[in-house]
Amino acid sequence: MKVLVGITTSDLTALDHSALAISSTGGFTVRCQGVLGSPAPAGQILHLSLDKNTDGSDAVKFRYDGKKLSYLTSQKLLIEPHKGSSFIFTSITREYAKGRSNPVYKGDLEAFVHKGKLRIGLRIDLDQYLKGVLQSEIPASYPLEAIKAQAVAARTYALRPRISHMKHDSINVCDSYLCCQYFGGTKSAPGENHLKAIEQTAGQVLTYNSQPILALFSSNAGGHTESFDNCFSDPDTKEFPPPALPYLKGVWETKNAKAPRAFDLSNEDDLRAFYAAVPFTEDRASAHYRWKVHLSANQLESHLHNNVNKLLKNPDSAPYIVAPKSGEFGHIGTFRALKRGVAGTIIELGVSTSSGEWIIKKELVIRDFFSVPSAGLKRLKSARVFFDQSKDKLGLLANLTISGTGWGHGVGMQQSGASGFAKAGFDYQSILKLYYSQVAIDKV
Ligand SMILES: [Zn+2]
Predict the structure, then answer these.
(1) 6-41 pLDDT tens trace
(2) How far is the CA of 169 from the centre of ligand 1 (A)?
(3) Ligand 1 centroid vs 113 CA: distance in angstroms?
(4) 66 pLDDT tier (thresholds 50, 70, 90)
């Protein structure tokens, strides 16, 4: 089974490219209803950009390095690597363990025009894709049963991504963790446990009512996972909250039936008590389990105004920002959670300002709202947070401390929790059935 993986820009936010430069370790051949041009030798650079045909329609323009010859076509271009070679995207960078560098992919490339934009996808075997996802998503040093659970979740996700990429983009999945699951390519060899996990779960996927589930996962939920409808909107209708998914309900990450479960994390007092309690959940070894961020009023004032404007301009976040009558973002007063999910995730955040109260809804929008680069904060690690605010002598906000649990949206399987459960003797089926309620493990 093959999948077409959309390759996103260097910042992982878009499938649309203005231009691309690609080289190959062993040369390549370009096809478009027959071979175009002579086969390119190793190291030659292929340049792709968007252009217009003489009739004004959009076309992919491509040329090989050093050759004046260039082609325009409205058809899909197939770029095949010569035997055993890899493509290097020299115009794109990705973050790897050894720093930022160009991604490397094994497989066939397909370049095409989509709604007036240049796009590129990698067509590869599902298991080859999974190798890249596991390498990008979970360390090979994790226990094998945790990596097997991740392999089944990732295989399932490839068949049923959150967004209908096939309908909207003519691809199966994209390579970005901001949208789908992270696929950083095949720069280095996968670890032994990555390969074993794929082999030992060959063809296995999670189903509900015989259909592949939306197998969301993240790094660490801080002890209790969140329900899907408290974090995500419907990608087509933008409705928030969307209809609930019966298999993505928040659960405690504990194997001990006698563990204290008397916390109602949708209540802030309980969330604070749980934050301060002696850790008892299986994901507690994560460095992200509990964290704090300290921000001054000056840092907040210099970024949050811009952040609100940016979020209002972005069609993905604009529907979830409610402005006060004034439409102005005045001096910041206080932050308070208006509504929380079962893991404590803020569903609606109220920000009182001198020009009225703003309401910011939805997990990722709330995390992005707190982007304060001058404090080294790109976005909040999670929206499972509470606020401690101090005022100056005039009663204005002086300092804000944000205390949070975990890293990521916290819906579905948690990688550090899976590791903890595996160390406690759980097999991958038990781990998956704990995180995804009422599911079956079937073969594709
Ligand atoms: Zn995607």
Answers:
(1) 999 999 999 999 999 999 999 999 888 776 777 888
(2) 10
(3) 18
(4) low
**Whole-number Å distance between alpha carbons of 437 and 130:** 24
Model confidence, pTM: 0.93
Determine the residue type at 339: K
Q: Which residues contact 294 (CB under 8 A, 6 or more apart)?
A: 399, 400, 401
Average pLDDT of the chain to the nearest whole number: 94
Give the start-to-end residue ranges of the domains of the chain: 2-208, 218-411
Q: Strand, helix or coil at 417? A: helix
Rounded distance from Cα 165 to ligand 1 centre (Å): 7
Q: How far is the CA of 182 from the centre of ligand 1 (A)?
A: 9
CA–CA gap between residue 328 and residue 401 (Å, rounded): 25
The torsion angles phi and psi of 370, rounded to 5 degrees, stand at -90, 30
Cα–Cα distance for residue pair 338/366, rounded to 1 Å: 12
Q: How far apart are CA 408 and CA 411, in angstroms?
A: 8
The number of C-alpha atoms within 13 Å of 144 and in the hemisphere containing its C-beta is 9
Mean pLDDT across the stretch 186-207? Answer: 94
Spacing, Cα 129 to ligand 1 middle (Å):
14
How is residue 140 written in tokens?
Answer: 């090979």
For residue 313, give the DSSP letter. H
- Å from CA of 179 to ligand 1 middle: 4
300 Cα: distance to centroid of ligand 1 (angstroms): 31
Question: How far away, in angstroms, is 130 Cα from ligand 1 center?
Answer: 15
Between 50-59, 238-247, 378-387, 422-431, the lowest mean confidence (pLDDT) is in 50-59
CA of 183 to the centre of ligand 1 (A): 11
Tokens 């260097």 map to which residue?
10
Q: Assess whether the previous peptide bond of 319 is cis (omega < 30° from 0).
A: no
User: Ligand 1 centre from 217 Cα, in Å?
Assistant: 14
Compute, in angstroms, the gap from residue 186 CA to the centroid of ligand 1: 19
Q: How far apart (Å, rounded) are the C-alpha atoms in residues 335 and 372?
A: 16
